[in-house]
Amino acid sequence: MRITDIGSFFLFMVNCVLVNNFIFSRFLGCCPFLGVSSKVQTATGMGLAVTFVMGLASFFTYFVNLLLVALGLEYLQTIAFILVIAALVQFVEMFMKKSMPSLYSALGIYLPLITTNCAVLAVTLLNVENSYNLFESVCNGVFGALGFMLAIVLMAGIRERLETSDIPKAFKGFPSSLITAGLMSIAFMGFQGMVK
Amino acid sequence: MSINWLQVVFALLALGALGAVFGFVLDVAEKKFAVEQDERVAQVRAACAGANCGACGYPGCDGFAEAVVKGEAPVNGCSAGGAKTAQAIAEIMGGDAGVTEPKVARVICQGECGVAKERYNYDGYHSCQMAAQMVGGPKMCSYSCVGLGDCADVCKFDAIRIENGIAVIDPDRCTACGMCEKTCPRHAIRLMPRDASVIVRCQNSDTGRIAREACMKACIACKRCEKTCQYDAIHVENGFAKIDTDKCTRCGECAKNCPCSCITVEGAASEVA
């Protein structure tokens, strides 16, 4: 999948957001997906934070990868990318603490956990694996994260409704959330094969 | 196979340089985005009991300290710390601690082995919560202490132990943090004023005969205590006796007259703070 013209750009977008959705198709980033999806507002905040980190991570890792290739150190990709992501998350955390304290406290422990969010590391490694150029890498990161955001916001909406509905006691809380996640994953399976 | 040392140096330099660059950027960012934190937060945090028990309703002692400084949480909100902590926090915040009624957790059940009849021999996972869901629990009385020690597990102060099939609380160690009260699936542990020494130790609301069949020390709602009490402090409601601690004079007459000995008087002088 390459971006050559405007048509392929949209196809690329659909591919990242719906077809290869990080959560429902690749099963990456499930921890914040379940952890921060109890309120739509915080879920949106989390989605935006992840979008920001993923976009920037894709951008920076592209150059880091160039550096590593030039030095013949491709095998250091994973550890170098983790370093980039960790630094970015730290930066986002400082930035949020200063400018969005309410979102900062709402995200709590999940914000630093973006560091170890497998979806973020996955997007950087996938960029390299698919030998995307800079633009494609950033698109992959941003759209992939938007897919993540779509999933987590949808989930939060459903969970807000579940909170007030009359369901058997044994299913209250996480069981119903996990069942919901499964059903949503089945729904997203419908997109498989849409983009060749 | 020989090691290419140049590669190793390259790898070290590359990662080291990356780390150094990020470190520098983060250091600059840290200064630029510095948030001045109220120094009182750290002081309040230090004054708290520090058990991170969550009894105050905030996520840990840090959350509580922040809320106190913001003015959201009361200065006497740390129940585990008690009056001393409240005083210390009040001094930091420059206010009055207010009156905190010292409390203690009490087990509202005397259904020991041999006293309470067993429904079946429970041999499952060691958890009250689990056992209580199995056909009404291992004891005949479905209001009783299950006796598998969920409360003892959550107690951060080592104040609860299981003796003879029932939870026993050491009032000297209890800080009234309320974790046991929240954990007990039967609500058989309650926080009560520390000086309320006369306690009805049963909450079985079944009718007399059924209650008696389940446990020798069950309240059968005979109302003898109600008639004995001269101060109108004890009343039978919903099938078991309840004491109004404000009216109760701790005379202990009800306990003497209870045919099922389900009212007890905590005698130790040290308990009455």
How many strand segments of chain A?
Answer: 0
Total separate domains of chain B = 2
Outline type of chain A: globular
Oligomer: heterodimer
Q: Uncertain spans of chain B, ≥5 residues at pLDDT below 50? A: 268-273
User: What's the tally of helices of chain A?
Assistant: 9
Class of secondary structure makeup of chain A: mainly alpha
Largest interface: A-B, 22 and 16 residues
Span of the ends, CA to CA of chain B: 78 Å
H/E element order of chain A: HHHHHHHHH
Describe this structure in words.
- The complex is a heterodimer of chains A (196) and B (273).
- Chain A has helices spanning 6-19, 30-35, 40-71, 77-99, 101-107, 110-113, 118-129, 134-164, 174-189.
- With 196 residues, chain A is an all-alpha fold.
- In chain A, helix 4 (77-99) packs across helix 7 (118-129).
- Chain B has 10 helices and 8 strands.
- Chain B is 34% helix and 12% strand.
- Chain B folds into 2 domains: 39-93, 3-methyladenine DNA Glycosylase II, Chain A, domain 3; 103-265, Alpha-Beta Plaits, CATH 3.30.70.20.
- Chain B starts with a helix and ends in an 8-residue tail after the last strand.
- Chain B has 273 residues and is α+β, with helices and mostly antiparallel strands.
- Chain B has a two-stranded antiparallel ribbon. Chain B has a two-stranded antiparallel sheet with strand order 2-3.
- Chain B has helices spanning 5-32, 39-47, 60-70, 82-93, 128-133, 150-154, 179-183, 208-214, 224-228, 253-257; strands at 103-107, 160-163, 166-169, 189-193, 198-200, 234-237, 240-243, 263-265.
- The chains are: A mainly alpha (196), B alpha+beta (273).
- At the A-B interface, helix 3 and helix 4 of A face helix 1 of B.
Q: Helix and strand layout, with pairings?
A:
The complex is a heterodimer of chains A (196) and B (273).
Chain A: H1 6-19, H2 30-35, H3 40-71, H4 77-99, H5 101-107, H6 110-113, H7 118-129, H8 134-164, H9 174-189
Helix pairs in contact in A: 1-8, 3-4, 3-7, 3-8, 4-5, 4-7, 7-8, 8-9
Chain B: H1 5-32, H2 39-47, H3 60-70, H4 82-93, E1 103-107, H5 128-133, H6 150-154, E2 160-163, E3 166-169, H7 179-183, E4 189-193, E5 198-200, H8 208-214, H9 224-228, E6 234-237, E7 240-243, H10 253-257, E8 263-265
Antiparallel strand pairs in B: 1-4, 2-3, 5-8, 6-7
Helix pairs in contact in B: 2-3, 2-4
